[in-house]
Amino acid sequence: MRSATGTRGFVSTCPPDAKINVQDVTDFRRGRGDLVFSLVMVAIALFFLVFFFSQTGWEDRKLPANMARYWMDQFGITSPEERPARLGRILKQSWIAPLACLTLLVPAALWNLYGAVRAYRWRARFQLPNGMAHELTQWVCALEFVAWFVVYTLLVPVLGYLMSTLLLGTGLPWRLGYRGARWMGICLATSLAIVLVFRTGLQIRTPVNIWLYDQLPQGLSTFLKVWF
After folding, report:
1. Exposed, middle or buried, 224 (CB in 10 Å: 0-12/13-18/19+)?
2. Which of 216, 205, 214, 158 is nearest to 227 (CA)?
3. Counting Cβ atoms within 10 Å, is residue 165 exposed (0-12), middle (13-18) or buried (19+)?
């Protein structure tokens, strides 16, 4: 798309936003790829459930024979060994938070899978399209941006926080279609401002051994390691 001056402007492949009603925000509809997504969520929930006992220390626990008295002590109903009872003592246990999460996650994942299976069968019954290729392709394409972040974290120990942020701050917008001298100038200024705020101003810790900085003279290398 070219403007009146003949320069090429930014063109978005996304359709323009339509007016959204409140009902559209709260209206839940299952897509074609919902069944696969629900299966993945159930697999993740069951994975955490299987490894709960080994990762939270339950395998090595020596529980007393009187379990009723044990739980009463944990909840502060009774006092163990004639010590003052403390309400909420069980909350300090390392396994209580993972157990609470799994208590919600596993049933929710299974219930969501049940709904996805029903929706899939309903579409198949009325011979509606059930193809998942397009929706799953969009999920896979989104992993590209995860790769961008992984590459960025790997570049920081090599090029330093300054150069890595400048590369990401210009490369990613270029990939999204924000090109040209004006956009690159905005991206460079924004990336530099991020470095000045987080690294120079707030002194957020970054890797100390930077390969690029080690190749520079001692004074410049120390300056960049301290401030950039």
Report:
1. middle
2. 205
3. buried
Using CA atoms, how far apart are residues 201 and 195, in angstroms rounded to an integer? Answer: 8
Amino acid at site 78: T
Question: Rounded mean pLDDT of the chain?
Answer: 82
Percent of the chain with pLDDT over 90: 35
Ramachandran angles phi, psi of 39, nearest 5°? -65, -40
Q: Which of 9-13, 18-22, 183-187 has the lowest mean pLDDT?
A: 9-13
Q: Where are the domains positioned within the chain?
A: 144-228
Decide if 204 contacts 198 (C-beta within 8 A).
yes
Q: Report which residue type is found at 52.
A: F
- Output the pTM of the full model: 0.56
Q: Which residues, at least 6 apart from 119, have a Cβ–Cβ distance to it below 8 Å?
A: 30, 34, 35
